Each structure stands twice: as C-alpha cells, then as structure tokens.
Amino acid sequence: MFDDIDAKILTIVQKDARISNAEIARQVGMAPSAIFERIRKLEMQGIIRGYETRLNAEALGLKLLAFVFVRTNEAHYADTEEILADIPGVQEVHHVAGEDCYLLKVRVESPQALGKLLRERIHTLDTVTSTRSTIVLQTVKETAELPIQ
C-alpha cells in the first residue's frame, strides 16, 4: 500500500500540511517532483483524505468541550446519525458498541448552550431515548495525527 518513504512523507505532512514539496524533498532526500507524485498517489488512494486548518476553539468562544453518549431505540439508524452529524457544534459522531449507540464530540459556548443543543436538537429526534454528557475540565492532549509504521 505504501512504503517507508511514503510513511516519512505522511509523518511530515501530518505535522505541517502547509510544508512545501521542496522542504519534504529535502527532509526525505528526494526530488520535489517525486514528492509531488507520491503525495498525489497517496491522495488518489484515499490515504491522504484532505487538508484542514485547526482553529483555537476557545479563541472563537467555544469554551466548552463535551462528550455526549446517545442511546437510540435502534442499534444503527442511518437517518439519526446523519442528523447528528449535521448539528452545528458536533465535531465527531461515532457509532459505538455497548449500552449507548453513539458518542458525540461537541464544542459549544457554555453549559447553557450544551443544554439547549441537547433539548432542541438531540432530544427532539424520535429515535433518541436518552443521553449522558461528560464535560471536559482540561484537555491534556488532542491531536488528529496517526502513528505511521
């Protein structure tokens, strides 16, 4: 699927998506044109899914991070997960095993905003039977980087 050079490229790009092909080439010891082709191949294979800018949520007024467990009356309900994924402030939706059906990562302005989101957006869904929320007090580590081997 990918070789050691691709692994090095992926490690570098994960740390800085804005890094130039020339700088990657310097670090890997290859020509920039070869790096360009490898990155294009990794994109076409779906290994590199996209590039994004990580914003400071607190600086944007989104000071509350919470994880919300959602229980539904069906184990896997496609319409429900699509609706959950479209709610502003919901960053992640995971279909999980166990007592609950979904785990959401939510960022909002305040505890009041979380309550409103739960009351007006989540609990209004016919398939949702209950929720449990865990509010984050401090984030020690948060990353989107994957270990490349």
Q: How many domains is the backbone divided into?
A: 2
Estimate percent helicity: 25-40%
Oligomer: single chain
SSE pattern, N- to C-terminal? HHHEHEEHE
Query: Could you name the CATH homologous superfamily of the largest domain?
Result: Lrp/AsnC effector binding domain/regulation of amino acid metabolism (RAM) domain
The first-level CATH class name of the largest domain: Alpha Beta
Q: What distance separates the N and C termini?
A: 12 Å
Strand content: 15-25%
Could you tell me the CATH topology label of the largest domain. Answer: Alpha-Beta Plaits
What do the pLDDT scores average to? 94
Biggest sheet strand line-up:
2-3-1-4
Briefly, what is this?
By secondary structure, the chain is α+β, with helices and mostly antiparallel strands. The chain has five helices and four strands, in the order αααβαββαβ.
Quickly list its features:
149 residues, alpha+beta, Alpha-Beta Plaits, 2 domains, four-stranded antiparallel β-sheet, 4 strands, 20% strand
Task: Provide an overview of this structure.
There is one protein chain. By secondary structure, the chain is an alpha+beta fold. The protein folds into 2 domains: 4-44, Arc Repressor Mutant, subunit A (Orthogonal Bundle), CATH 1.10.10; 58-135, Lrp/AsnC effector binding domain/regulation of amino acid metabolism (RAM) domain (Alpha-Beta Plaits). Helices cover 36% and strands 20% of the residues. It has helices at residues 4-15, 21-28, 32-44, 78-85, 111-122, and strands at residues 64-72, 90-95, 102-108, 128-135. The protein has a 4-stranded antiparallel sheet with strand order 2-3-1-4. Strand 2 and strand 3 form a beta hairpin. Helix 2 crosses helix 3. The longest helix has 13 residues, at 32-44. 13% of the residues are buried.
